């Protein structure tokens, strides 16, 4: 992985501002090293063997795993699932991600579908109180109660939650369901290397490669900090929106994961860079116009993948054309007044993406500290939840 914060950025950067933030490096590193919520920086992986044991049990009787979770208990596994499973080829064992909506239309179809399938259920919620997750879990459990005996349910339900607290942990203790923990010192959006994501992913990828890459990514502190400095300087220069861009369709959820990581980590106290994303070349035919000639509040981060699948059309290598378009767009945007960071990857492999992901978590944490906010809480999310609770109580 190469992070280029110079080629398409240098003429925009203000050296005094860069120096001002660079000088905060020791303080920022020290903050991360001493904060309680840094469990993701030295992940305890002692649960990984258990993941395989439970997975093998599930594969004996189920054709499908329904993964119920939202936000940081969902986006990491969904992102890696989309990146590393085929677009079209049907798999013998399928994974369904649910729990991200209150749509009755979706729920009705999901429940009708599950009535016909042999499935297991993995509910993931650190707090155990998230509304979307809880309602979906209750609805699916009703289907299971009709299909399976109480003893069979124990072989079909896996609960991933807080190690000691909450209603879900209590359910594990009372019912004897399989369970995994999300450590107390790891927040949802930093939980990629916990069972919240590694368990569902163990059904479709080699999670050991992802782990290997992630551990390498944690070593990239210096580059992560330089990138965080550039983001911070961009903000001071009025570039308050960061557009993450990929030229691969199956990156959609990976970019969603990035948006959540930065949005919830940084958007506090009236501060933060607003993260958006685009998939090219599709979005060049919609939002591309705005980026090129619209309000200059945007800077971009482009992912450039050196090697991809070999596929030729009329003697031309398609990936080379994709890269040529990417280079042209970067150059055009830069000349149009849009600075950009380029993250060049040799290939999209589990190891590389594990490494990129850990590096981005460092960038999010460092960026938060450079804004003098706490990158590990999300008090704003609670505001709408309180409003919903009050209205529900009034309605009942
Ligand atoms: O990053 C976070 O902490 C949040 O996005 C949570 O993951 C999300 O709100 C889901 O919370 P929970 O796992 O408690 O259901």
Computed over alpha carbons, the radius of gyration is: 22 Å
Number of strands: 12
Largest sheet: 5 strands, mixed
Q: Approximately what portion of the residues adopt beta-strand conformation?
A: 5-15%
Per CATH, the class of the largest domain reads: Alpha Beta
Q: Percentage of helical residues?
A: 40-55%
What structural category arises from helix and sheet content? alpha/beta
Strand order of the largest sheet: 1-12-9-7-8
Q: Please report the distance between the alpha carbons of the first and last residues.
A: 54 Å
- Sketch the topology as an H/E string, one letter per element: EHHHEHEHEHHEHEHHHEHEHEEEHEHH
Count of alpha/pi helices: 16
CATH superfamily of the largest domain: Glucose-6-phosphate isomerase like protein, domain 1
Unreliable parts:
none
Provide the domain count.
2
Overall pLDDT metric: 97
* Overall geometric form: globular
CATH-level-2 architecture of the largest domain: 3-Layer(aba) Sandwich
Query: Which small-molecule species are bound to the chains here?
Result: 5-phosphoarabinonic acid
CATH topology of the largest domain: Rossmann fold
């Amino acid at each position: 992985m190469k992070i280029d914060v110079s080629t398409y950025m240098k003429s925009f950067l203000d050296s005094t501002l860069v120096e001002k933030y660079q000088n905060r490096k020791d303080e920022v590193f020290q903050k991360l090293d001493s904060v309680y919520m840094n469990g993701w920086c030295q992940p305890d992986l002692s649960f990984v063997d258990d993941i395989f044991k439970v997975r093998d049990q599930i594969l004996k009787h189920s054709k499908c795993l329904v993964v119920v979770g939202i936000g940081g208990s969902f986006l990491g596994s969904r992102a890696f699932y989309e990146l590393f499973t085929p677009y079209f080829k049907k798999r013998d064992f399928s994974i369904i991600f649910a729990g991200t909506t209150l749509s009755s239309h979706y729920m009705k179809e999901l429940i009708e579908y599950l009535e016909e399938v042999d499935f297991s259920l993995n509910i993931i919620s650190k707090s155990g109180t998230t509304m979307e997750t809880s309602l979906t879990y209750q609805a699916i459990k009703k289907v299971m109660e009709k299909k399976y005996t109480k003893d069979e349910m124990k072989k079909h339900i896996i609960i991933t939650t807080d190690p000691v607290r909450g209603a879900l942990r209590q359910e594990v203790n009372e019912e004897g369901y399989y369970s995994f923990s999300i450590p107390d010192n790891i927040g949802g959006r930093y939980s990629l290397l916990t069972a919240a994501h590694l368990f569902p992913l163990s059904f479709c990828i080699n999670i050991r490669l992802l782990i290997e890459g992630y551990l390498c990514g944690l070593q990239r502190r210096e580059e992560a900090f330089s990138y965080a400095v550039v983001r911070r300087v961009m903000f001071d220069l009025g570039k308050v929106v960061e557009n993450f861009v990929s030229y691969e369709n199956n990156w959609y959820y990976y970019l969603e994961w990035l948006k959540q990581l930065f949005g919830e980590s940084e958007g506090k106290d009236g501060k933060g860079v607003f993260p958006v994303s685009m998939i090219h070349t599709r979005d060049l035919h919609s939002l591309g116009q705005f980026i090129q000639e619209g309000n200059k509040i945007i800077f971009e981060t482009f992912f450039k993948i050196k090697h991809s699948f070999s596929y030729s059309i009329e003697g031309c290598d398609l990936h080379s054309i994709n890269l040529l378009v990417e280079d042209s767009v970067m150059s055009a945007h830069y000349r149009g007044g849009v600075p950009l960071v380029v993250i060049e990857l040799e290939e999209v492999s589990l190891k590389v993406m594990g490494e990129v992901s850990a590096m981005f978590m460092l960038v999010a944490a460092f960026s938060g500290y450079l804004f003098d906010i706490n990158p590990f809480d999300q008090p704003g999310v609670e505001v709408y939840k309180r409003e919903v609770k009050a209205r529900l109580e009034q309605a009942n």
